[in-house]
Every structure is written in structure tokens, then in C-alpha cells.
Write a structure and sequence with these properties.
two-stranded antiparallel sheet
Length: 273
């Protein structure tokens, strides 16, 4: 246990230090979410209009953009492993008296802190786009960001555990990131799409993270939004077998998926030579 904790602390501290010192990565991690928010928001807000009373397209998309920011940061935890392998640092870590489970947990812990920080920084945009925030909302948001980050970090580390080049990993990331984003309900309600697309979306772990974060932002208006949605469907909820998921249920689904992915990542990483 002591070995696991020591490895977790050492790796987490190193990754946090590297992130703070890497200014291009520090600012670049916000680039894609901001581009989506600005370009998609400006391009489609006037065309789509209000999705519900008092909620336009930009306001609807904003919670998903926060989840996207966490996604981008979380999957990059795998890139650091590939980088360490290419430059020989990973070999030094593996032969050191550090638990391999602790190494993975350190990557996840460091990335979780980074993801939460980035998500909270994105909250600075809320007043600009007309989304109300308060201290209670922030407190509710922090554990959700952590659950989403841990779950997706497990996916990133699992894929990186067998990759040998940064180029190959980045290509694989692009193949995975785009479907995860577009099938998660960031840009459209997953209950208001063709049946096949709705089914595929509900196998996407990020879908439940986006839904939970969105419900935290608009929980005070859910009854109004639900009644206004009428026959078009429940705009801000994910329905599974006829049941509309709540915040806790979404978080539990993400937590279960996170445990599975993290366990697989630890197993795969432990088999490194």
C-alpha cells in the first residue's frame, strides 16, 4: 500500500509540474473547446434559436463544452505515457521500486487535478453567454468533473499502454475523440435524433457525463424545460429503457465505466516489459 501511495504521489506531482511548465499545452488544451463554442455557437445559434424557454443553442452547448475540455485533457494522460516510452523515461520508471498500479493511479490523479482546474476555468465564460452559476453549482460540478476525468483517463492509458509512437497515438486519438464528442449530446439532444443514432449515443460514456453536467447547470429549470419539450422529447435528459437518467444515475454509470476502464488500464500497464 505504501508503495502504491508513493508511486501515485511521485507520478502525479511530476505530471502536474510538467503541465504547468508546458505553456503551449496549457493554452492549447482550451483551443478546440473554445473554437467549437465560438464557431458552432455563432454559426448555429441564430438558425436553431431556443431549444427551451430561456435556453438558446450556445447555453445548451456550454455544459458539453466543459465536458469536452475534460475529455481532451483526460485522453492526453495516455500521450504522456507514449512520450515517456519514446524518450526512455518510462523504462527508468518501470525498473524503479514503484508500484505499477501506483504509476497508473498517479497519471489519473494528476490528470484529474488538471481536468478539474480546466473545467473550473471554463466557468469564467458562463456570465458572458448568460448561464447563471453560484457556489453550490461549482461544488456539485467538481465531483462530476473528477468522475468524467478518471473514466476517460482510464481509456487514454489503456490505449497508450501498447502504443510505441506519439504519431500513432495522436492519430488513434483523433479517430476516437471526434465520435465521442459528436455522439455525446454536446451539440444536440440525444433523445431527439434517429433511433439508430440514439442507441449508439447511449453506448458512449461521455454521453452520461455531458448529461449530468448539463443537469447541474439547468436543474432549476428542468420542470419548465420538460413541459416545454412536449412531444419533441425531454431535451436535457438521457432516456434509457424509458427511464430518464438523473444526475446521480449518470454519475454512477460513468463511475462503473471508469472502474472497468481503469482496471483494464492497470492490467495492461502491469504487463509492460
Amino acid at each position: 500500500m505504501e508503495s502504491v501511495l508513493r508511486a501515485t504521489w511521485v507520478i502525479a506531482y511530476r505530471d502536474l509540474l510538467r503541465f504547468i511548465q508546458d505553456r503551449p499545452r496549457l493554452f492549447g488544451s482550451f483551443a478546440m473547446p473554445l473554437l467549437f463554442l465560438i464557431i458552432f455557437g455563432a454559426g448555429f445559434n441564430r438558425i436553431i434559436g431556443s431549444l427551451a424557454p430561456g435556453v438558446d443553442f450556445i447555453q445548451f452547448m456550454y455544459p458539453g463544452i466543459i465536458a469536452m475540455t475534460v475529455l481532451m485533457s483526460s485522453l492526453m494522460s495516455g500521450l504522456s505515457i507514449v512520450w515517456d516510452r519514446e524518450f526512455g523515461f518510462l523504462r527508468e520508471v518501470l525498473v524503479a521500486p514503484l508500484s505499477r498500479t501506483g504509476i497508473v493511479l498517479g497519471k489519473v490523479t494528476g490528470n484529474g487535478v488538471i481536468a478539474i482546474g480546466q473545467g473550473l476555468i471554463m466557468l469564467a465564460l458562463a456570465p458572458i453567454i448568460g448561464v447563471k452559476i453560484d457556489f453550490i453549482l461549482v461544488l456539485k460540478l467538481i465531483p462530476l468533473l473528477l468522475v468524467v476525468s478518471v473514466s476517460l483517463s482510464g481509456l487514454g492509458i489503456l490505449m497508450a499502454s501498447r502504443m510505441r509512437s506519439q504519431q500513432g497515438f495522436q492519430v488513434l486519438m483523433q479517430i476516437i475523440i471526434m465520435p465521442l464528442i459528436f455522439l455525446s449530446g454536446v451539440f444536440f439532444p440525444v433523445n431527439n435524433v434517429p433511433v439508430w443514432l440514439e442507441v449508439v449515443s447511449k453506448f458512449n460514456p461521455l454521453t452520461y457525463g455531458v448529461d449530468a453536467i448539463r443537469q447541474v447547470f439547468f436543474s432549476g429549470d428542468m420542470s419548465v424545460i420538460a413541459s416545454a419539450a412536449g412531444d419533441s422529447g425531454y431535451v436535457f435528459g438521457v432516456t434509457v429503457f424509458g427511464h430518464t437518467m438523473g444526475i446521480i444515475e449518470d454519475a454512477l454509470v460513468m463511475a462503473v465505466l471508469g472502474i472497468i476502464l481503469l482496471s483494464l488500464a492497470i492490467w495492461s500497464f502491469s504487463r509492460q516489459e
